[in-house]
Design goal:
The complex is a heterodimer of chains A (243) and B (220). The N and C termini of chain A lie far apart (59 Å). In chain A, α2 runs antiparallel to α7 and α6 packs across α7. Chain A has a single domain, classed as Orthogonal Bundle (MetI-like fold), CATH 1.10.3720. Chain A contains nine helices and no strands. Helix content of chain A is 72%, strand content 0%. Chain A is elongated. In chain B, α2 packs parallel to α10, α3 crosses α5 and α5 crosses α7. Chain B is elongated, with a radius of gyration of 21 Å. By secondary structure, chain B is an all-alpha fold. In chain B, 50% of the residues are buried. Classes of the chains: A mainly alpha (243), B mainly alpha (220).
């Protein structure tokens, strides 16, 4: 069986000692508890922390850019369609290609991972923010004007708060997707939870315990982030709980 | 090399290697559309039936949030660790990744159909099967097509991962992970081809979706 081929290895590769390890490791079982316990501190935990860092960076920058773009398209309606089309094009570009092309330009580092990840968040965040802002009913805006609110006050006190559910829904999808896509980047750059996944795949027989442990960590991280953002959404929109 | 010249080289790579790119694009299409087809056969009847019964909302929505959280590379890796490298193993992983959006959208498409229309059909004596195929399916078609569109674009982009996984007929992904052989211009050219395939599928299904929603919109 052939292992995975990496374009550029880099980083320390943890090779399980099938000859001398426990029986579980020698037989390459799906989950060896002892290996996970022994390698939590030096492999899995750092990878998890790196993965969280990547996600925060990509989603944070992506949110700032999307918000600015959505504000522009909200203010100047004619910008909406071209921005949307651009997002469609970016979404259709495969992540592997973006990572490979950027590598020689931005080097082996976090930047090369974060740029494509950020680009993908734009595709989800921008349309959600814009749709949220545009979804405010006309009669609500009418009453805001009737109350004597200026254009700026209307935005901050009426349109933005009412757009929060749509914005948060976009943020949840973008965060979960970013956590999943970030694992792919490790085929080029040894960083994040993708690193132990590719280490395991590079091994001639595929090191099952490491593959499963790192994959499950990535899935749990995504589900935890989703739950956390759902709680944040509830906290930010107290009015939605009153019926 | 500047970015501009890289783009020009990539655009030159396409006519110079048209036969190779076409062959690899065909392999990617084979992987992607086989997976999409199987996923549709599995997910859509289930989603439509659950939506018709207005049951299993938790399953339909849960599938989509867990589906998004699944890292594609890990899933493909797990299938290869379990079954070995091969066309069908990668296809199986792609099928699992394509099921959530299809299941969710087919559920929502039927579940969201106007209850009055369904009640009227029932009152006219249509069987449950007829209600599903003659009333709910046509009315829910735009959302159903939207689900196919999302799944198709996702599967085409993800099928390139077959290249990293070392599948023999791995398609355009094989070129994309091999800058040593094909140079960066080749990588970029292959990426263009995948993007073009995804965009073409996206706009084709988008047009179908648009046509379906116009046909089903209530006339003024």
């Amino acid at each position: 069986m052939t292992g995975f081929r990496l374009a550029d290895g880099g980083g320390p590769v943890v090779i399980p000692d099938f000859g001398h390890g426990t029986a579980c490791l020698r037989h390459n079982h799906w989950f060896c508890k002892s290996w996970v316990a022994d390698n939590w501190g030096d492999t899995l935990q750092p990878a998890l922390v790196q993965h969280i860092y990547l996600t925060l960076l990509a989603v944070g920058i992506g949110f700032a850019i999307s918000f600015a773009l959505a504000l522009l398209a909200f203010r100047f309606r004619f910008l909406g369609p071209p921005f949307g089309a651009l997002g469609d094009v970016v979404y259709c570009l495969p992540s592997i290609a973006l990572f490979t092309i950027l590598l020689p330009i931005t080097g082996v580092g976090v930047t090369t991972i974060v740029i494509p990840l950020t680009a993908y968040t734009l595709f989800v965040l921008y349309p959600n923010i814009l749709a949220g802002l545009r979804s405010v009913p006309a009669d609500v805006l009418e009453s805001a004007r009737g109350m004597g609110l200026t254009r700026t006050q209307t935005f901050w006190r009426v349109e933005l708060p009412l757009a929060v559910p749509a914005i948060m829904a976009g943020l949840r999808v973008a965060t979960v997707a970013t956590i999943a896509i970030a694992t792919v980047a490790a085929f080029l750059i040894h960083y994040g939870l993708g690193a132990p996944i590719f280490d395991a795949l590079e091994h001639p027989d595929i090191f099952r315990t490491e593959l499963l442990a790192a994959s499950v960590l990535a899935i749990l991280l995504a589900l935890a982030a989703d739950a956390l953002l759902a709680l944040l959404q509830r906290a930010l929109t107290p009015w939605s709980r009153i019926r | 090399m500047t970015v501009a010249s890289l783009f020009i080289d990539a655009l030159r790579f396409i006519p110079d290697n048209a036969a190779l790119l076409l062959e690899k694009a065909w392999e990617t299409a084979e992987l992607a559309f086989t997976a999409l087809g199987i996923a549709m056969v599995i997910a859509m009847p289930l989603g439509l039936w659950l939506g018709h019964r207005h049951r299993g909302l938790f399953l339909a929505l849960g599938a989509s949030s867990i589906g998004r959280a699944l890292p594609s590379i890990a899933l493909i890796g797990l299938f290869i660790a379990w079954l070995g490298v091969g066309f069908w193993n990668v296809t199986a992983a792609l099928v699992i990744l394509a099921i959530p959006p299809l299941l969710t959208n087919s559920y929502v498409a039927v579940d969201g159909v106007d209850r009055d229309a369904v009640d009227a059909a029932r009152g006219m004596g249509l069987t449950e099967r007829q209600i599903l195929t003659q009333v709910e399916l046509p009315l829910g078609l735009p959302l159903l097509l939207a689900g196919i569109r999302i799944a198709a674009v996702f599967v085409i982009a993800t099928a390139t991962i077959a290249g990293i996984a070392g599948v023999e007929r791995g398609g355009l992904g094989q070129i994309m992970v091999n800058p040593v052989t094909y140079a960066r211009s080749g990588v970029l050219a292959a990426a263009f081809c995948v993007a073009a395939m995804a965009l073409a599928t996206n706009s084709l299904l988008g047009l179908a979706q648009h046509a379906a929603s116009r046909r089903m919109a209530p006339r003024a």
